[in-house]
Amino acid sequence: MKVKICGIMNGETARKAVEFGADALGFVFAESRRKVSPRLAREIIAQLPEDIHKFGVFVNESKQRIQEIADYCGLTHIQLHGEESPNFCKEFTLPVIKAFNIGSHSDLELVTEYACEGFLLDSPKGAYRGGTGISFDWTILQSAILDGKRIILAGGLNSENVGIAIRTANPFMVDVSSGVETDGMKDLDKMKDFIFAAKQ
Predict the structure, then answer these.
(1) Rounded to a whole number, what is the distance in angstroms from the first to the last CA of the chain?
(2) Can you give the pLDDT at residue 133?
(3) 3-state helix/strand/coil string of 134-147
(4) N or C end: fewer C-beta atoms under 10 angstroms in the chain?
(5) Residue 25 φ/ψ region, left for φ over 0, alpha for ψ in the -120 to 50 degree band, beta for the rest
């Protein structure tokens, strides 16, 4: 199972995540308590191995700004969390991951309108577009409507429930942010436990 640690804000957390076995790291450029500047993201990414995927998280940002940040920082994937259209998602040379907030089976219909590299399925949105620490009903994802789609499962995951989530939803990757934090900061022990549990 592939694992993404999102909301990376410093070099030590990034290096430890890689050491523990993370496959991808997420850098938030949208309004969030985990927002980082392009300059900081670039400094952290410069320290990382080539084969680690570096996702940039954006919400309703312009194509030009996204491309500028992606090029400057050395991102490998663009993750879109806003109301971006199917056509907008096709305008990038980098792989695009489109995020959707899932509250019911009907929300999956929207996913089928997009042709993207992958789809991050998260809990219904709170104050921000993600990182709420709340999970949704993973059995929704057993619907055949998503067959052939590369799914990244997010929302309320932690080391205790990630195994059940993987068995229930059968995603391509799991994504965690608040589930490996203590007092709003990444907790290295929780991060290590989560990656180990997911990989098991």
Answers:
(1) 8
(2) 62
(3) CCCCHHHHHCHHHC
(4) C
(5) beta
The one catalytic residue in 6, 23, 73, 175 is 6
Structure tokens that stand for 142 in this block: 């057993």
Residue of 23, 73, 116, 122 marked catalytic:
122
Intervals of the chain under pLDDT 50: 127, 130
Pick one of 3.20.20.70, 3.90.800.10, 3.90.950.10, 3.90.1010.10 as the CATH number of 2-199: 3.20.20.70
In tens, the pLDDT along 19-40 reads: 999 999 999 999 999 999 999 9
At a CB cut-off of 8 Å and minimum separation 6, what does 163 contact? 197, 198, 200
Which pLDDT value is given to residue 126? 58
In one-letter notation, the amino acid at residue 148 is G
Could you tell me if 95 and 118 are in contact, meaning their C-beta atoms sit under 8 angstroms apart? yes
Check if 6 is active-site: yes
pLDDT at 103: 86
Query: Rounded distance, CA 184 to CA 194, Å?
Result: 16
Q: CA-based diameter of the chain, in Å?
A: 42
Annotated catalytic residue 89: no
